[in-house]
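Quick start: read one record
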Amino acid sequence: MELNGLLPFTHWHWLTIGLLLMGGELVVPGIFLFWEGLGAVLTGLLLFLFPDLGWKTQVVAFAFFSSVCTAGNVIYTHRRKLASEGATLNARSSQYVGRSADLIEPIHDGVGAVRIDDTRWRVEGPDLPEGTRVRIVGAKGATLLVEPEGKES
């Protein structure tokens, strides 16, 4: 039984479906509809280049393109998990590693304080006098770990 007469999809149908799916991503966020939509757009482009493709080939092409796009997205996003703002979102003290500041309280018995922006931070490091420029080399909870600036680790 031949169904070509029942499904006369042209490239415009696939492009429209693709754009609707991609637009649906705005309403239903989750980045899944986008890749299905991209698969439909690619199927439409394939049908534009080869207009005599049957409906079975179109469905297979759509399934293939959608799968490849979705798999590509999964691979890309998993490889891209690198240090970002989100990694230090709930560890504010970690955001200051690498910055320099002046001691507002001397480090005595390994404990002192610095002011960064408008916040006073407890620091741990070697004993140093007030006013010494220190570099933040790490964080332990809400305590910054410092060393005198210019000292190489």
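The chain has two domains: 11-79, 88-148.
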